[in-house]
Design a protein that fits this description.
By secondary structure, the chain is an alpha/beta fold. 36% of the residues lie in helices and 19% in strands.
Length: 242
């Protein structure tokens, strides 16, 4: 790892070694409930304990304005189509170049690794794109998905996927909580943060367990932006990191 890349990865995490992100990159699929006015939501949480935001290029421009300029920008670099698509793509093609990430002041980029099926196509692209961003010392966060999306929240997909992503060069892995999450974290050779948890459980309690089992932070979306009081959820989650 080059000195610049190593410094970039270290800067993602706070002084306690944690990373807390709000994922607002869902809207690349279209308008989602809770994200009708994403800029207003970002502004309302600008003074919160959030470490930063995961954003698409369109919203990322807002991060140049105070007080949002003090938050970390993780730029979503891959896409698999809109919610109106007739089929789910098993390859999330990266559409953001390293040069664009640098011009936008991104602290990191986030892309998807899709496992299962003919995943050599997806994983080959992930490896190539990690290499491209690393040439510019840009840290890469990789999120683990399944080609059969219904299997994403299963132990096998998260356990093997986290290790595959790390072996391919990911600097941070974003994984979903599953039974045996401690094994997912312990076998992942890079820092692992928790992706959005199940919607039918107390997300603060899930986050608490994940931290005890090895997570180095959170990257939550709908559990925050679809909450009745997003600021209260952020405060509760941030309290776990004190």
């Amino acid at each position: 790892m080059t000195n610049g890349l190593q410094r970039g990865v270290c800067r993602l995490f706070d002084s306690s070694g944690y990373l807390f992100l709000l994922a607002l990159d869902h809207a690349q699929m279209g308008v989602m409930p809770g994200l009708e006015q994403p800029e207003a939501l970002m502004d309302s949480l600008a003074e919160s304990a959030l470490g930063g935001y995961i954003l698409n290029v369109g919203l990322a421009r807002r991060m140049a304005k105070a007080p949002l300029d003090r938050k970390k920008l993780v730029l979503r670099s891959s896409s698999a189509g809109s919610q109106l698509a007739s089929e789910y793509s098993t390859i999330h093609t990266n559409h953001v170049s390293p040069e664009t990430a640098l011009m936008m002041g991104a602290d990191s980029v986030l892309m998807m690794a899709v496992l299962g099926g003919a995943d050599y196509r997806s994983l080959q692209k992930v490896g190539e794109d990690i290499d491209a961003f690393h040439r510019f010392s840009i840290p890469v966060i990789v999120e683990i998905l399944s080609a059969d999306f219904s299997k994403t929240n299963t132990f096998d997909v998260q356990y093997h996927g986290a290790r595959v992503a790390a072996e391919m060069g990911a600097d941070v892995v974003k994984a979903f909580y599953v039974d045996g999450f401690d094994k997912v974290a312990s076998c992942c050779t890079v820092p692992l943060i928790l992706a959005g948890g199940p919607k039918d459980k107390d997300i603060v309690e899930v986050a608490r367990r994940a931290l005890l089992e090895g997570a180095r932070g959170f990257a939550f979306g709908r559990n925050i932006f679809q909450a009745r009081d997003p600021a209260a959820v952020v405060a509760s989650l941030a309290g776990l990191l004190d």
